[in-house]
Write a structure and sequence with these properties.
This protein has one domain (2-97): Oxidized Rhodanese, domain 1 (3-Layer(aba) Sandwich). Helices cover 24% and strands 20% of the residues. It has helices spanning 51-61, 76-88; strands spanning 2-3, 15-19, 32-35, 68-72, 94-97.
Amino acid sequence: MLIDYAATAKGAFPRIYIASGNTPLRDAADGKVIHVPHTSLLNADRTPKPAKEIWVLLEKAGIPRYAEIVFVGDDTGEAAANYFIFKLMGYPDVKVRAS
């Protein structure tokens, strides 16, 4: 799901913004911000890392299993890459905020 303004798509769980680019997001007025570059979830050949490695990275970053996750990035492609991986990992409520 692509959203243009995060407040228009509010869920039942706490909102967490995930900065998917190389630079961390500085400001998120209505949620917690966690920096997880999309490249940290990919192998050198740009395929997703094995699930067991991704789970370790997400746990270390402090991303709860049940949360409303909004991906942002320097460009929408970076956020979309994380969106795809989180959907593969079974996260139920993920969105991409248009940049």
